[in-house]
Design a protein that fits this description.
Length: about 400
């Protein structure tokens, strides 16, 4: 199966809230220990992923600090880090972003997170209604962008005031690092159309994702702008479709119906996110109808907020589904899988060759000698052995 002419830009996920084997269970969980996160970052850097997403929220390690720590242990990996308007001033975020971009030698990407949980936002001192949060964000990034591109900013806005704000250093990426953003409401789409570089959608079925992408593209065109597009998806890839579906079932095998009901009720009452409602509507809290589109499985969303769908199948099957997303304009994938260290290897070893990505795309056998192919024999004293001629 040939790879697409324009290979997907494939990022991975750093689980700064913790990791595990089973969703909705305390069995075989992993704390977000820095050494573990460093293992994941080093692995995906070596395997050929272009970058990593670091999530944000009360339950997560702070993304700027974590990215700065991981940058020193990686070479080419980019870090998609969250800016949350209102949790600090635009001038302070300008200094943070510039410092991290310089420390990482221009490997910073920025993810605008306006927030979808009024209760969590209240804890950060933000009490704005849903749509007004985007008006606030527009003023916030007016100041922020002026600082990074010009070194100074002034604004007397409804939500943001800045008088003779200054920035002492330029970012490595000029005039600023790229801005990513995901939001499904009308207000979010209008904000994205005028401000960001890459619009992200959660993993909705291709037809639904296309409707949203078309709406964003049209809104951007009205402002004289063009955006690129990405998607946030989980992956369950195995050598066969049957093995992959069995792994999906295993992932939620410890998840009780009571936990599903409690989690979905909390999402409904504590979140005003339109995107979250769209994710929940895919499964409606039911575990008997989770394949919401060919090979698109909504089981993750039974208990996880935000991105709740996974592509499930063999490398050939999942590559075909990804090409369907490419056809509607998706250029970037931000993937994840449980647990994230092992699944990063599975994706790189099984799926990347079908997509023309990663180190495996070179089809090199580093154990061979003098051009002879070698067969892995378990790593004994003699290592591998040379394959018979013609085998």
């Amino acid at each position: 199966m040939t790879a697409a002419k324009n290979p997907i830009d494939f990022l991975w996920f750093i689980p700064t809230a913790g990791d595990g084997i089973y969703l909705g269970s305390n069995e075989l969980t992993r704390a977000p220990d820095h050494r573990y996160l460093r293992e994941i970052a080093s692995a995906v850097d070596r395997l050929g992923y272009s970058g990593v997403l670091l999530p944000t929220g009360v339950a997560c390690e702070e993304s700027f600090v974590t990215a700065a720590a991981l940058a020193t242990h990686t070479e080419s990996l980019k870090f998609l880090v969250a800016i949350r308007p209102g949790t600090a001033s635009p001038a302070y975020y300008a200094r943070l972003a510039t410092a991290l971009d310089r420390v990482s030698d221009g490997r910073l990407l920025l993810n605008i997170v306006v927030g979808g949980s009024p209760s969590e936002l209240a804890g950060d001192g933000i009490f704005l209604p849903h749509d007004e949060r985007y008006d606030h964000a527009e003023e916030f990034f007016t100041v922020w962008e002026d600082l990074l591109s010009k070194g100074q900013a002034d604004l007397n806005g409804k939500h943001i005031r800045a008088k003779n704000a200054r920035l002492g250093f330029r970012p490595t990426q000029w005039p600023r690092p790229p801005l990513y953003f995901g939001g499904s409401s009308d207000a979010a789409i209008e904000f994205a159309a005028g401000r960001v570089d890459k619009y992200l959608t959660w993993g909705e079925p291709p037809a639904q994702a296309k409707e949203k992408i078309d709406a964003v593209r049209a809104a951007a065109a009205r402002k004289g702008r063009e955006l690129s597009f990405g998607i946030r998806l989980h992956f369950i890839v195995r050598e066969t479709d049957e093995e992959a579906w069995a792994a999906a079932d295993r992932l939620i095998s410890r998840l009780s119906d009571e936990t599903i009901r409690e989690t979905q009720a909390r999402f409904a009452t504590e979140s005003d996110s339109v995107g979250q409602r769209r994710m929940a509507a895919l499964h409606n809290g039911r575990r008997d109808k989770l394949e919401v589109s060919p090979n698109l499985w909504a089981g993750v969303g039974l208990v996880r907020a935000g991105a709740g769908t996974a592509l499930v199948g063999s490398p050939e099957t999942v590559a075909a589904r990804l090409r369907e997303y490419q056809q509607i304009g998706i250029e970037t994938v931000i993937g994840s899988g449980y647990p994230h260290l092992e699944e990063a290897y599975r994706i790189a070893e099984l799926l990347f060759p079908k997509l023309g990505l990663g180190k495996a795309a070179k089809n090199e056998n580093e154990r061979s000698e003098f051009g002879d192919s070698a067969v892995f024999a378990g790593g004994g004293h003699s290592g591998g052995f040379r394959a018979a001629s013609g085998s």
